[in-house]
Amino acid sequence: MTLSQLKHRLVHPKAVAFDKQLSAVDGWSKDRLADYNWQQRKALVKHCATTVPFYQRAFRDVGFEAGDLKSPDDFELLPIVEKTHLREQFDEFISSKFAGRKMPEATTGGTTGEPLRVYCDPDVAMSAISWRMLRWWGVDPTMNAGYVYRAIPKGLRKKLIDLAIWPTRRAYLSALDMTDENMRQFASALKRTRARYVIGYVGALQAFARYVAAKDIKFPDLKVIWTTSAPLPEPVRQDLFESFGCPVYTQYGSCEFYFLAAECDQQSGLHIASDVRHVEIVGSLTEPLEASTKMDQMGDIVATDLTNYAFPLLRYRLGDRGRLLNRSCPCGRPYPLMDYVRGRTSDNIQMSDGTQIPGEFWTTIFDDFVDQISAFQVYQAKDGSVTVRYETKDPARSTAATIETVRQRLEDKIQNRVKLIFSHEKVDGHTGGKTQYVFSELTGPQRLPASSNVESY
C-alpha cells in the first residue's frame, strides 16, 4: 500500500467503506443487481411517503400508497417530478428526518439559464461512486491528476485541499481563463506531478488539446482523459486521443444526480450505476413511446437517486434524451446499458414544414470520419438555414469527398426543407468549457416550443 492510499483510507473512512460496498457489485449477477435495485426503490418510496411533504401530497393527488408497489412495473404509477416542481416547491422536498441538519448543496445554471439547486444526503459519500468508475479505466483517486473546471480552488482553499490530499497532487486549469500562459503552466504541472488522469469539460479539454498539439507537448504518464458536461462525439474523442495519447472516456451525470452512468474500457455504451441510481426512458406528452418495448427507443431520461434520503428525487425528468440498450457489455459487469447522451446540450433543428429533427441526429453526422474532422457545429439561423461548420485535422488534405458524402446524407434526411450550408472554419463552441454542438435560433431555449412532430433517426 502506498502512502497516498494509506492516507486516503485514514482521511476518508466513510467513503472508503462505501467504495468497498460499491466495488463488490461488479461481481454480482444481473438478477441480483436488478432485485437489489427494486428493494432500494421500495424502501425509498416508503421513506418519501412518510417523511417528504412533496411526495405525501403528490401521492395523495394520484391515489397512490407505498403499499401499491407490488412489482417493478408498478414504479411507473408514481408521478414524474419536473424541474418546475423543484424550483417552485424546493423546501417540500426536504425529508422531515433531516430537518435542521446541515446538508451539502449542488447548484447549476441549467440549460435554460434558470438557477437550480438540490441538497445532497450528508450521510452519503458520493465521491466513492466516481472511484469505482476510475478503476474501470485503470486508475484510482489516490493518483495525481489534473482538473479543468470553471470553479477551481485558489488561495487558502487550495492550500488546505493540497494539505488534505498530500502526497496526492492536483493541477488545475480554469475553463474560464484559458490563456496560453495558463495552459503552459497547467501542462508543466501535469508533467511535473506525473499526472495519471485529467478530468474536464469537453470544450475546455478540446481547447487545451489544440494548445498541446501546437506545442508538441507529450504526457508519457497520462493514462486517462475523463470528459464531462457535454456529449462526446467520436471526432472529438479521436482528436483528444491523438493530442494526449491515452484513452478518452465519458460519463453521464448532472447537478441533481452525480455519476448516473459511465462507460468502461470497452466503450460500448454507458453502464447505469443501478445499485445507486435508477434510470427510465419515458415518452413526452407529444411523443409517447411504443408500449411493446422501451428498449432502444429514444425518449426523455427520468432518474431516481436511490441514496439521497435527505432530499429525494423520485422519477425526476432531467431534460435530457437517451435510450436504454438491449444488450450486454463485453466486460461482463452486471449493470444495464444506456446509449450515449448525444443531444444533452443540443437544440432540435426545425424544418420548413414545422417538423423538428433532434439534436441527437446532428451530433453523429461526422462519426464515420473521425480521421478527417476534428471539430464541428451545426447552427440554424432565424431564416431557417442550417450551417454546418467543420474543422479538419490536416488543412492540406482534401476533404471534399467526405463533405459531399455528409451533404448527401443530410439532403436525403431533410428533403429540401431547409437550406444547407457547409463552412470550413475554426470551430470554438465552448462557453466556460461547456460545449454546445447544435443550436438553433428557432427552437433553442426561450424560443419556439418543442414540436409535436419530431422525426426519429
From TrEMBL:
A GO MF label: phenylacetate-CoA ligase activity
InterPro entries named among the record's database cross-references: ANL_N_sf, CapK_Type1_Caps_Biosynth
Record key words, sorted: Ligase
Statement: the UniProt record of this protein carries the keyword Ligase: yes
UniProt entry tagged with the keyword Ribonucleoprotein: no
EC number in record: 6.2.1.30
Name of the protein described by the UniProt record: Phenylacetate-coenzyme A ligase
Native organism: Rubripirellula amarantea
